[in-house]
Specification:
735 residues; 7-stranded parallel beta sheet
Length: 735
């Protein structure tokens, strides 16, 4: 983080090219500073060891243990037919359990000499199972003798740091490299202002780096962690505070709806009353729109809480005030659907300039990448002349060719699919910066909202509109109880028999392109255990049509179909002509078919918690109760099953997002949510460190208000540049 000459030194100069190459390729470490910020994952104490009893399968682990016994066996094999093959079996123990190490062939001589009973060492390797017992095959090891000068130096202190490592570079080699560069830590420039650091009793940065890598006591580790967490939280919050400050300086046109305009006419034709929540959030938005600097608001709402209605009323208010509004959706299916449902909700109010259109009407146009040239030309013309008050589209809206007459409001649906840069690109389309409303149906815990969307104000819609039905969710353990799966298909037939429709969701499409053998992707341990690829839409649809759902009208929908075909399938399903839609997660966001009451999710363990919650929100959208069945072959005790049980047990998205965050590393959540945030958090845990984040946000806001340019804080400016460079770099990789 701290770019100063000593810490900018490339690793290949300090450690030599071969080690530096592995560090760059496998750990993303390039400079001395990067390496100093590669913190230990945990620490081993000499006396107390990792529990061998708790080793995770298929993971690369480092353990410290003692050799209990070592035996050399001979055996015959194709390579050594006369019984000359050699296998060394070493049993190690740490008091909690035992683990077998195996070495073969010529590789047995050195360990046979080194690993005598009673020897203590660190071992690193991948945990596998052989004859129903855990073992490490050919692990790398480092003896802990503590007599030679170097060993005493390397393992100084009773606490042994265990670093995030890879098969190419064991933890202790990372440790030795860090010992080499540790003296440079003295030159780290402190990003925290002295008053803040002293006021909170935090140690200086060089001391924190020393203590995190070479602690003598547990108190050293605590001191270092508290300090390094503050750095991360504070630098990130200063970046966000500066973004908020810069946005607040921008001019914007205040947009107030006319008293008897489009919005009034629209409200008058609504067949229902708005919920209390919708009214409250609309007021917050209208207040923001009436100011002369741009609104930046995040609207979080449960699946089905009526966010689209709130967004549409905001767009109508802006059209009333003479501006245009653009709604950005992540997929074409979703853009088409928003366009369809908004035109339906507005009726003749969406027929501006047409016969039969109402007096206050405007035009609502769709703009996507796959539109024909003529339709596209007409849409672009409607935008530039101002004929169209509302445009709904995909990324196509960000293209250079798209020009607006007077863009007043940008609504971004499903924010986690768009980076900050894309929001900025669309923002540049206005004569003055437009107001911005960002929507997400993935509920975000407060701390994540502060960390990831810290440049936005937040509104939450947490009650469901009247007429929405509850959704019952159940886990269907297909392997343990196959008859449950047969019953699931009967339930689908019953729903269809009652005049309703159903979704069946699968993780894969099943055509050649997503064949897992070809994609070369690394499989998770659970995939490896099953040795079968995830179920695919095309196969499942075929099996269901011929088997349990024969006689019903079954169609497929997936992302690689031509957009016109996708739209035709969705239209038939929405019109009730299709009984069962077998689809990938293209239906995850925003698809709205109130008559669809059942959903069966195949291989549900292959989806994340928030994704399952999103998918489930597609049923129970009408007056009939919804049913969601989570089918899995995972065993009862597996983490995957516990995750599914949690989803089945609650419909509260905020509760689930917390569970989701606790089960995954924050990095994934932040990384998905915003370009670049993943790499900047090494020490901060978003859920546990809620207080630090909240306090850092306040401190950052105060500091930036007093000194937006950070004139007196060169250390902080350097750390910020490093963080923002990293964000930009990540964005370029993604974009």
């Amino acid at each position: 983080m701290d770019l100063v000459p000593a810490l900018e030194e490339p690793l290949k100069k300090v450690l030599g090219p071969p080690t530096a190459k592995v560090m760059a390729e496998h750990l993303g470490l390039h400079t001395v500073g990067d390496l100093l910020h590669h913190y230990p994952r945990r620490y081993e104490e000499r006396g107390q060891l990792t529990h061998l009893a708790d080793l995770p399968m298929d993971e690369h682990v480092t353990v410290v243990a003692m050799v209990a016994d070592a035996r050399l066996h001979s055996f015959a094999s194709s390579k050594a037919p006369r019984g000359k093959g050699q296998r060394l079996e070493v049993t190690i123990t740490d008091g909690s359990g035992r683990l077998q190490l195996v070495f073969f062939g010529n590789g047995v001589h050195k360990p046979h000499k080194d690993l005598l009973p009673g020897t203590r060492a660190m071992f690193a390797g991948k945990v596998s199972v052989f004859n129903r017992r855990l073992q490490l095959a050919h692990p790398a090891y480092e003896l802990l003798r503590g007599d030679s000068e170097e060993a005493v130096e390397t393992w100084a202190g009773a606490l042994i740091p265990i670093y995030p490592a890879t098969a190419k570079l064991e933890s202790w080699k990372v440790g030795k490299a860090i010992q080499t560069v540790l003296p440079s830590a003295q030159e780290a420039v402190d990003p925290l202002p002295d008053t803040l650091r002293e006021g909170r009793g935090l140690v200086a940065l060089p001391e924190a780096l020393l203590k995190i890598h070479r602690p003598h006591t547990k108190a050293d580790i605590e001191d270092a962690r508290s300090r390094l967490k503050w750095d991360e939280a504070f630098v990130l919050q200063v970046a966000l505070a500066r973004r908020r400050h810069a946005d607040a300086q921008l001019p914007a046109v205040a947009r107030k709806p006319k008293p008897d305009g489009l919005l009034t006419a629209f409200d008058a034709r609504l067949p229902f009353t708005l919920t209390e929540g919708q009214r409250k959030v609309s007021k917050e938005i209208f207040d923001d729109l009436a100011t002369e600097h741009p609104m930046h608001r995040l609207l979080q709402g449960e699946v089905g809480s009526g966010k689209t209605m709130v967004a549409l009323r905001a767009m109508l208010a802006v059209v009333d005030a003479g501006g245009q509004a653009a709604m950005l959706a992540p997929t074409e299916v979703l853009a088409q659907q928003h366009h369809r449902s908004i035109v339906e909700m507005m009726g003749e109010l969406a027929e501006g300039g047409m016969l039969g259109g109402a007096d206050q009407a405007t035009k609502v146009v769709l703009l996507t990448g796959s539109m024909g040239a003529a339709a596209r030309r007409q849409a672009l013309l409607d935008l530039v002349t101002g004929e169209a008050g509302i445009v709904i589209g995909t990324h196509a809206l960000i293209e250079d060719k798209v020009q607006f007459h007077d863009l007043g409001l940008v609504v971004v649906d499903e924010q986690h699919r768009f980076g900050v840069e894309q929001r900025d690109a669309l923002r540049g389309k206005g004569k003055q910066p437009p107001h911005l409303l960002v929507m997400t149906a993935t509920p975000i815990p407060r701390t994540v909202a502060m960390t990831v969307f810290g440049d936005l104000e937040t509104s939450v819609l947490d009650q469901l509109p009247a007429g929405r039905s509850p959704i019952a969710s159940h886990v269907v353990p297909a392997a343990d109880k196959p008859h449950f799966l047969s019953r699931a298909w009967e339930r689908v037939r019953e729903e269809v028999g009652n005049g309703h429709q159903a979704y069946v969701v699968c993780p894969r499409i099943g055509d050649e392109e997503d064949d897992p053998k070809k994609s070369g992707k690394k499989k998770s341990p659970e995939d490896e255990a099953e040795k079968r690829p995830p179920l695919a839409v095309l196969d499942v649809a075929d099996q269901l049509s011929k088997g349990p759902l024969s006689g019903l009208k079954v169609e497929v929908l997936h992302g690689r179909m031509h957009p016109d075909d996708k739209d035709a399938v969705m239209r038939r399903f929405a019109a009730g002509e299709t009984d069962v839609l077998v689809a990938t997660t293209v239906i995850e966001v925003g698809v709205n078919v109130p008559n669809a009451t059942a959903m069966v999710i195949m291989d549900a363990d292959r989806f994340g918690v928030s994704q399952l919650h999103q998918l489930r929100g597609r049923v129970g959208r009408g007056s009939a109760p919804g049913l969601c069945l989570l089918v899995t072959e995972m065993p009862e005790a597996s983490p995957a099953r516990q995750r599914l049980n949690a989803v089945a047990a609650t419909l509260d998205g905020f509760e689930l997002s917390r569970i989701d965050l606790e089960q995954r590393r924050e990095g994934d959540v932040l990384g998905q949510a915003q370009s670049g945030a993943r790499t900047s958090l090494r020490m901060l845990a978003v859920i546990e460190d809620e207080e630090i984040i909240a306090e850092a946000r306040e401190e950052a806001a105060t500091l930036v208000a007093a000194d937006p340019e950070l004139t007196n804080l060169p250390g902080l400016r350097t750390a910020l540049d490093a963080l923002l460079d990293e964000e930009r770099e990540q964005y370029l990789e993604k974009g």
